[in-house]
């Protein structure tokens, strides 16, 4: 096979030993070059090799379904930061990719860079001044609140504004037909079950850990707890292939994978966090206008999986 060989997404998945849906996500995030031939997506072998070489220096998990995303906040070049006025939106949901596109086209907008890190690390980056906007879906088991307790603890002395984006259903991914009869969090006490976990710092990982704490379940007694993957799609794909009995993620992503049933457990609040000192600046006002626009809301409704009732609403000023 020569360097110019055109590969299908499935062939790329076979080479990288990942799920085909993960290939599509890499392409969507701009990490893997692709092109169209009619309605079909194709990837050159040389671009697959380039992707592999680019990620070799990044520590990865030893699981075949996990993949490396460009999530280091210092990975942006000085030229990129200057060109984009250092404006970085942090978070992993496709909603933010769409928001970035709208922001680039807005009269008072800006071209934003995207950093695909989890909620905890995103808030830390905002505190350090490395990103301008961070998203969070962090559940506090003691108060039952999302995000507000974490923002107040993780941005000490930094007044912040929390803007609601959407509510999403979080739950378990299980094999089609739920052959193990899994119902909820209490099932994590069953020693015969194996899970596939999200990476440290993600909102989903925090959700799991908070429920384990409240139920008095030791993580070391759960098979697969140390096995991590960095996307909902990869988690669901692992369960579909029989690599785990339980995965945790949102409903929208799980329904994209064949061979999966979704067990809803709780509704989570996905929200945007910015520093209060920035809210009157033009790009931030543009973001608020976009979030509250009917056009943006209609595009998200077309994707499905979001409750957009309070999108654009300021829910807390710390």
From TrEMBL:
Report the residue ranges that make up the Helix-turn-helix domain in this protein: 7-54
Signal peptide span per the entry? none
Which residue range or ranges hold the PBP domain? 102-292
Which PANTHER family does this one have?
BLL2305 PROTEIN
Under Gene Ontology molecular function, one entry of this record is:
DNA binding
Alphabetized InterPro entries for the sequence:
HTH_17, PBP_domain, SinI_DNA-bd
In Swiss-Prot or TrEMBL terms, this protein is called DNA binding domain protein, excisionase family
**Pfam families registered for this protein in UniProt:** HTH_17 (PF12728), PBP_like (PF12727)
């Amino acid at each position: 096979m020569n360097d110019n060989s055109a590969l299908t997404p499935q062939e790329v998945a076979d080479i990288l030993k990942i799920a085909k849906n993960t290939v599509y996500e890499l392409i969507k995030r701009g990490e893997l070059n692709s092109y169209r031939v009619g309605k079909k997506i194709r990837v050159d072998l040389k671009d697959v090799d380039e992707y592999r070489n680019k990620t070799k220096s990044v520590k990865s998990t030893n699981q075949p379904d996990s993949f490396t995303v460009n999530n280091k906040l210092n990975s942006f070049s000085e030229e990129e930061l200057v060109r984009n006025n250092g404006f970085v939106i942090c978070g992993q949901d496709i909603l933010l990719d769409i928001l970035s596109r709208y922001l680039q086209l807005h009269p008072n907008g800006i071209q934003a860079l995207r950093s695909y890190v989890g909620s905890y690390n995103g808030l830390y980056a905002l505190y350090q001044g490395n990103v301008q906007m961070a998203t969070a879906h962090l559940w506090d088991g003691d108060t039952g609140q999302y995000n507000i307790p974490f923002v107040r603890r993780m941005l000490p002395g930094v007044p912040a504004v929390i803007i609601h984006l959407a509510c999403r259903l979080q739950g378990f991914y299980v094999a089609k037909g739920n052959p193990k009869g899994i119902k909820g969090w209490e099932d994590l006490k069953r020693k015969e079950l194996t899970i596939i976990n999200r990476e440290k710092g993600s909102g989903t990982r925090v959700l799991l850990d908070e429920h384990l704490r409240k139920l008095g379940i030791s993580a070391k007694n759960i098979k697969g707890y140390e096995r991590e993957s960095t996307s909902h799609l990869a988690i669901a794909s692992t369960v579909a292939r029989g690599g785990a009995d339980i995965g945790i993620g949102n409903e929208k992503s799980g329904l994209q994978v064949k061979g999966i049933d979704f067990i809803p457990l709780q509704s989570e609040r996905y929200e945007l966090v910015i520093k209060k000192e920035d809210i009157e600046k033009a790009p931030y006002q543009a973001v608020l206008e976009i979030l509250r626009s009917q056009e943006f809301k209609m595009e998200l409704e077309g994707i499905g999986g979001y409750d957009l009732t309070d999108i654009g609403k300021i829910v807390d000023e710390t």
